[in-house]
Amino acid sequence: MTLAFFMLFRHQIPIHYLCLKRYFDMQVTTKAIVFSAIKYGETSLIVKAFTASDGIKSYLLRGVLYSKKGKLKIAYFQPLTQLEIVANHKNKGTLETLREAKVFYHYQTLYADMAKNAMTLFLAELLGNSIREEEKNEDLFQFLEASLQWLDIHKEVANFHLFFMLSLTRFLGFYPDVYQIDKPYFDLLEGGFAAVESLNPNLRGDNIYYFKTFLGTNFDTIHTIKMNKTNRQELLKSLILYFELHLQGFRKPKSLAVLNEVFNTYV
Fold first, then answer.
1. Lowest model confidence (mean pLDDT) among 22-31, 42-51, 214-223
2. What kind of fold does domain 1-106 have according to CATH?
């Protein structure tokens, strides 16, 4: 086909067809993990999710709180729900459009178990404050997907959030430097172990003992780490400070108080 013939043929294509083609070119089918859903107006939601195809995305779901017959159900957008979605991604930093959604992995215990539910709210808020990249990160998505499914099917999970946070730092770029791990202090600002305590916030004593222990374990053995409630809360407080020091704009999760209260009562 010559260029002249192509240009002639091109001008015969209806404008509405070209617009329709551009519309469908933006359509994406992908897995997604819900981070938050905020009410917008009287009938709508703004949903923030981490997608396998494009990283963080925010969607405006118009009328979802009013309509009972649509393809989008309110129950799909609980914190950390794992979905398969069909969406239109303009990738212009604006709110995107969600066309269809279905649950990809059905949790059995995450919302029913009180301790796991408190942990879910905390982790969803933590992730929403930590992950900002609007680009594909397959390794991070697979880590989140597998970790949450592990949490769902296991019973002894009191230490899960601590190990999860440490593991997450691998993907966020500030995993602890384990060189000189035998040293008695860990400098939270520098991200490494030291022989002498610096003027920066440091881990020491029981806190650094448990910190080192988590660095040398995996999900399947975290239940063997025996901690009392005070030790667990102190290490969690230190890990949150670690995130604050290394992530600009990171905010301490508001759900932390609920998590501590539930763990003090039930775990």
1. 22-31
2. OB fold (Dihydrolipoamide Acetyltransferase, E2P) (2.40.50)
